[in-house]
Design a protein that fits this description.
Keywords: ATP-binding, Ligase, Nucleotide-binding, Purine biosynthesis
Mean pLDDT: 95
GO molecular function, one term: ATP binding
Oligomer: single chain
Protein name: Phosphoribosylaminoimidazole-succinocarboxamide synthase
GO biological process, one term: 'de novo' IMP biosynthetic process
Largest sheet: 8 strands, antiparallel
Low-confidence stretches: none
CATH architecture of the largest domain: 2-Layer Sandwich
CATH topology of the largest domain: D-amino Acid Aminotransferase, Chain A, domain 1
Shape: globular
Pathway: Purine metabolism; IMP biosynthesis via de novo pathway; 5-amino-1-(5-phospho-D-ribosyl)imidazole-4-carboxamide from 5-amino-1-(5-phospho-D-ribosyl)imidazole-4-carboxylate: step 1/2
C-alpha cells in the first residue's frame, strides 16, 4: 500500500482538508479519505506513516459497528464498490482508507473522556490539583485509573491552533444544556463500553476524544472512533501505576519530537525511518489486536 499524503480528485468537490483527512462533498453525503499524514503538537509533519490511513479507517469501522446500539453513526460504507461511480474511478487510492458517510451538522466541541490520569492531564494535576478545572483527590499517581472517568470537553481548533479545554458550563453555553448533558452521557457510555471490551483483549484505553453531529434531529457519532490518533492505548500486561506507559499510538512520535530542538511550530521536522517504521508497527498492532 502506497503512502498517501494528499489526494487530488479532479472530478470531486474538495470540501475540507484537515490534519489527516481529505473530505469531499457528494451532495447529501461526504467521502472521507484518511491519508497517512501525521500531526503532533497540532503541526502536520512532512513525513507520512505507512498504513496509517488504513488503520484509522478500519478501526473506526470496527467501533462504529460495535457502538451502534449506544448511538447511531454517520457511516454508510467503507466498500468502494458500494460508493457512487465518480468515486470508484479512484479505487486504487480509496480502497481501505475511505468512508462514505451521511452529512451531519457537527457540534463545535470535542468530547474528551479520561479514564486514567496521564499526558497533559497529569501535568495539569501536578500544577493545580485539577484536570481541566475538575478537582481530583490529592494523592493520585501518574497513570492511575480515575473512578469514575471524567469528561473534559474542548473546542475544536483550526489547523495550526491548539484545541482549548473548556469547562462543562462553557460547553453548555456553546451547545445548550440538553445537548451538553446528552453528549457527556454518550461519550462516557461509549468509553466505558470500549474500555471493557478492550480489557478482554489485554488493552487499556486510557482516554479518547469523540465527535458528534446532528442528522434529522438525532445526535449521531461522526468522524473517527477510538483510533491511535484519538485515543491512548496501553498494554495491560505492562501497566504500572506511577510512571508513563508504553503506548500504541502517536505518543511514540511525540516522545521523539520532545528530544529535538524544535519550537513545536510549523514546519515540522522530518521523521527518521526507524521512528516511521516503529510508529507504523504500533498502529498496525492495535488494529490486529481488535480484529482477532
Amino acid at each position: 500500500m502506497n503512502i498517501v499524503l494528499k489526494t487530488e480528485f479532479t472530478d470531486l468537490d474538495l470540501a475540507a482538508r484537515g490534519k489527516v483527512r481529505d473530505i469531499y462533498d457528494l451532495g447529501d453525503k461526504l467521502l472521507i479519505v484518511t491519508t497517512d499524514r501525521i500531526s503532533a503538537f497540532d503541526v502536520i509533519l512532512p513525513t507520512g506513516i505507512p498504513q496509517k490511513g488504513y488503520v484509522l479507517t478500519q478501526l473506526s469501522k470496527f467501533w462504529f459497528e460495535q457502538t451502534k446500539s449506544i448511538v447511531k453513526n454517520h457511516l454508510i460504507t467503507t466498500d468502494v464498490n458500494e460508493m457512487p461511480e465518480e468515486c470508484r474511478q479512484y479505487s486504487d487510492i480509496l480502497n481501505g482508507r475511505s468512508m462514505l458517510v451521511k452529512k451531519a451538522d457537527p457540534f463545535p466541541v470535542e468530547c474528551v473522556v479520561r479514564g486514567y490520569i496521564t499526558g497533559s492531564g497529569w501535568k495539569d494535576y501536578l500544577r493545580t490539583g485539577k484536570v481541566c478545572g475538575i478537582k481530583l483527590p490529592g494523592n493520585l499517581k501518574e497513570s492511575q485509573k480515575l473512578e469514575p472517568p471524567i469528561f473534559t470537553p474542548a473546542t475544536k481548533a483550526e489547523i495550526g491552533d491548539h484545541d482549548e479545554n473548556i469547562s462543562f458550563d462553557k460547553m453548555i453555553e456553546i451547545v445548550g444544556k440538553d445537548n451538553a448533558e446528552k453528549l457527556k452521557e454518550l461519550t462516557i457510555s461509549i468509553y466505558e463500553f470500549a474500555r471493557d471490551l478492550a480489557l478482554k483483549k489485554g488493552i487499556i484505553i486510557a482516554d479518547t476524544k469523540l465527535e458528534f453531529g446532528v442528522k434529522n434531529g438525532d445526535i449521531i457519532l461522526i468522524d473517527e472512533v477510538l483510533t491511535p490518533d484519538s485515543s491512548r492505548f496501553w498494554y495491560e500486561r505492562e501497566y504500572e501505576v506511577g510512571k508513563p506507559q508504553n503506548s500504541m499510538d502517536k505518543q511514540f512520535v511525540r516522545n521523539y519530537l520532545e528530544t529535538l530542538d524544535w519550537d513545536k511550530r510549523a514546519p515540522g521536522p522530518e521523521l527518521p525511518q526507524d521512528v516511521v517504521n516503529k510508529t507504523s508497527e504500533k498502529y498496525m498492532e492495535i488494529l490486529n489486536i481488535f480484529n482477532k
